[in-house]
Amino acid sequence: MRGSKIIVLSWLIGVLHFNSWAQSVRQIESKIEKANWSASKQLLQKALHRDSANLQLNLLITKWYVSAVNPGYQIDSAKHYLDKSKTYYQQLPIKLRERANRWGIDENILSRLESSIDSLAFVNAKQINSEVAYNHFINQYPSAKEVGMAIELRNEVAFLDALKINSYQSFQQYIQSYPQSHRISEATYRYEKLLFEAKTRDDKLNSYISFIEAYPNSPFRKMAEAVIYERSTALGDTASYFNFLQRFPTSAYRKKAIDRLYYLYQEIEKPFPQKLMTDSLAAVHKLNDDYWVPVLAKGKYAFINSSGEEVIPPQFTDVEATYKCGLVESDMLSTSEGLFGRNGKKIFDFTPIRQALGLGFWKVGDSTCLKLVHASGEKVISDCFNDIQLIGNRFLFVVKKLGGVIYTLHGKQLLSETWDDAEWLENVLVLTRLEKKTVYSLSALEKIVKGEALEQQQVFDEVRAVGKERLLVRNGSLEGLIDSQQQFIVPLSRQTLLLESFGLVRKINNEFLLDAVDLQLANQKFKNYSFNRQWLLLNSHPNQRIWDTRAKRFLPLHDSSWFAAGLLFAKRGDSSTVYFNSSNELSFFGENKITIIPSRDSVHAFFVTDAKQKKTVYEVVNGKKLFLIECDGIESLNRDLFMIVRKSKKGIINRAGKIILLVEYEAVALNQTHYWSTFKDKKFGLVDVQNGQVIKPVSTKGLSILNKSTLIVFKDGFYGLMDWSGKSVTEFEYDEILPWKENTIWVKKNFSWTLFDYVTSKVIIDRIKRFDTWLDGETEKLYRIQRENFFGVISSSKGVIIPPTFSMILNVGSNEVPLYFTDKEVEEAGVHVVIYYNQNGKFLRKQVYEDEEFEQVACEQ
Questions:
Q1: Which of 736, 742, 788, 783 is nearest to 762 (CA)?
Q2: How do strand 346-348 and strand 353-358 relate by DSSP bridges?
Q3: Which residues contact 525 (CB under 8 A, 6 or more apart)?
Q4: N or C: which end of the chain has fewer CB within 10 A?
Q5: Cα separations (Å) of 706 from 211, 737, 773?
Q6: What average pLDDT score do residues 240-269 get?
Q7: How far apart are CA 398 and CA 370, in angstroms?
Q8: Tens digits of per-residue pLDDT, 67-80?
Q9: Given phi > 0 = left and psi -120 to 50 = alpha, else beta, which region is 682?
Q10: CA dihedral 19, 23, 24, 25 (to 10 degrees)
Q11: Closest by alpha carbon to 251, among 298, 212, 194, 197?
């Protein structure tokens, strides 16, 4: 810089002597050379005052300001007077301009001088190296060749200044001030990042929501949306997902939310809302809607559906052993190549541990490191853990080295503490550490999710669910009751709480208080109590009181009372009262003995008053009198029938007291529905109480009903068919008879089963050694039959589906939609011909295996 100044001064000395001011100029120069800066400036100012437009004087003061050793050195002033010199030069008449040229002053010289001053100014700006200095240079020296470099340096210094402040405001100002800077991309990124951090610094859910509303185009919107999605649905219930989808319909996480919601619906077994069914999810749903079966082809396992269609081509070396028995309904496939979705997409590499947890979650890994993945393809927890379990289908309890940690279903840690155990009780999260239990209500968990302040949580020795959204809590000898919002219903006290169906009972000092049941019971203590239906027996010395929990009143005092068949019986003096409900009761006087009639169906109850062998039967439910009858004993068979006993003989009457079956049998027992078996003289009979039909005892074994008109009867050592008139329908020559359908029965004779139509005597299939029942429904029966050493399948509705010609037959499908795996073994060739048939016996697929291959595909049953 000093060298540049010397060059400028030398040039000025040579050119300033060409006019009438030469004497004054030499005098000024002399003082400048002697470094008499003050005197020289005074002379210059006086001269310029007299002739401000003098070219020589303006150039000389330029020299004065540009002198490096001058205390008054000021490059901006030098620039100012040089600009004036240039102007005056342009204004000189031609002759004077030519004269100036002869003395060495021309446009080129002035331009070179200007360049030198520009350079000196740029050097000054660089030395200061500030945004202000560079801006000053750029504004004051706009024609300098260094302006471009100054702009770059200015932008860089300004960027560093913004970086030091490191706020979104500093970068926002930078972006607005210098939009053409090469740092604009980085500045923009930093602005957006710092803006996002500043607006969400409190880490509250509402702050993230406000951010995306205020800055919808922010590159950090998706990050904010991730937090909003994870926290809005952190409580893990379907309602939170619906709320998220409704409030943020355009969120980048909409699809993920719908996917998760789909698996929640799968768990609760409800139809998924059609309006949310995306194309990809519909495809998954269709794949999940059918069971699959593995097949072996070309040495690799493939999967087929119930129609025999190959849904995943051969690609797996091995599959789960249980898959080989068919009916694969899992949403993911566990194979030797890893965990695969039903769409064929690989979810995770092979690991020794692969366990479905529910809600689409799978625990994968080995004994040293477990991870969590989801059927949708999401890697939920990638960090290693020791174990994991679902808590209430809402949260994850992740066990690590130092203890268990509560995570949301999104794999985000919800609580920082570690715990020994976790459970979900009545919409409350109960966490155990060192045998102390801390409870978190849903509202408390919601506060945590939203980032709001949380009050001190309640800690107890014991927490136990005792009713809907009711928790019994204990600390030492103190017990209390809280609701699912952690509000005390009964404060902690030295008491034992019993939550009964009629209300809360408190036990203090071996006495019971029922003030929580009704205020009318307040300030009373009872030694014990019992409850039935609506009646509460309260014992306190010396009286026993009866409280009607529905009518909210005490009954009159009695000598004694008891419960039976849901009724309240009370006795006072020689009178007895039966209470049916708050407004219905019956009183009996004298020697009436009241007893409950035994009931075989344990559903319908009756009671009887017994006076001088005459029994009056009443209905328990309302006290309605049914009939009066003389008998030794009576028993309820069902709502409409009673068995009576007279001198050890039994019969049946209806609820009107009418005889249905004469009192002459040794035993009467229910056969089925409205049919009753009778026993007399070592023979069995049958009565149809609905239609009034009777078969007198003729069989040495109990009769069976084949259909409305035909019975299976055992007589003379063999089975046969008989109608209600007692006429034989078939010969009595069979060892066993089993119903099949309509007029078709299975009969066993000489160790062989035959299926035939007993009306037409047509044989459908014979020589059956045995059969296995695969389905035994009212409308459909399905048997696997065996003839000699070969197997087949027969249906009551479709007939013979597969003839008994196979070495093995298995149903690898479901009972509703069977898929038959059949094997024909050719022992001489050492091969197995495996054919798959659908539920109707239609051929689907054939594979030929050698013995070793067959072992790989055969189900080990």
A1: 742
A2: unpaired
A3: 511, 512, 513, 540
A4: C
A5: 76, 10, 18
A6: 94
A7: 10
A8: 878 888 889 888 88
A9: left
A10: 60
A11: 212
Q: What is the pLDDT of residue 576?
A: 85
Q: How many whole angstroms separate alpha carbon 74 and alpha carbon 117?
A: 11
Closest CA to 809 of 832, 830, 784: 784
**Spatial distance between the Cα atoms of 48 and 56, rounded to a whole number of angstroms:** 10
- Whole-number Å distance between alpha carbons of 731 and 717: 12
The structural domains of the chain, with segments of one domain joined by +, span 2-128
pLDDT at 11 over 60: no
Supply the pLDDT for residue 21.
58
Locate 644 and state its tokens.
């009576």
Q: What is the mean pLDDT of the chain?
A: 90
What is the separation, in whole angstroms, between the first and last Cα of the chain? 99
Contact partners, residue 519, CB within 8 Å, separation at least 6: none
Higher-scoring residue by pLDDT: 60, 793: 793
What is the spatial distance between Cα 783 and Cα 739, in angstroms, rounded to a whole number?
13
Helix (H, G, I), strand (E, B), or coil: what is residue 841? coil
- Decide if 487 contacts 494 (C-beta within 8 A): no
pLDDT of residue 690: 87
- The predicted-structure confidence for 172-210, as pLDDT tens digits, reads as follows 999 999 999 999 999 999 999 999 999 999 999 999 999
Strands (E) in 328-448, as ranges, are 332-335, 338-341, 346-348, 353-358, 361-365, 370-374, 379-385, 387-391, 395-400, 403-408, 421-425, 428-433, 436-441
| Spatial CA neighbour of 361 closest among 380, 346, 345 | 380
584/840: higher pLDDT: 840
For residues 644 and 631, the answer to whether their CB atoms sit within 8 Å is: yes
Please report the pLDDT score of residue 332 as a whole number. 92
Tokens of 294: 């593995």
pTM value?
Answer: 0.78
User: Token pair for residue 248?
Assistant: 């943020």
Of 459, 478, 371, 471, residue with least CA distance to 419: 459
642-700 pLDDT, tens digit per residue, is 999 999 999 999 999 999 999 999 999 988 888 999 999 999 999 998 888 999 999 98
Q: Where are the beta strands (DSSP E) in 450-600?
A: 459-460, 462-467, 470-475, 478-483, 488-494, 496-500, 503-508, 511-513, 525-526, 528-532, 535-540, 543-548, 553-554, 560-564, 567-572, 575-581, 584-589, 593-597
Quick one: angle between helices 184-199 and 205-214, nearest 10? 140
Q: What's CA 796's distance to the chain center, in Å?
A: 43
Q: pLDDT, tens digit, for every residue of 312-325?
A: 999 999 999 999 99
Q: Give the burial class of 173: count Cβ atoms within 10 A of its Cβ; 0-12 exposed, 13-18 middle, 19 or more buried.
A: middle
Provide the 8-state DSSP code for 75: H
Give the integer Cα–Cα distance in Å for 747 and 737: 5
**Residue 182: Cβ-neighbour burial (10 angstroms; 0-12, 13-18, 19+):** exposed
DSSP 246: H
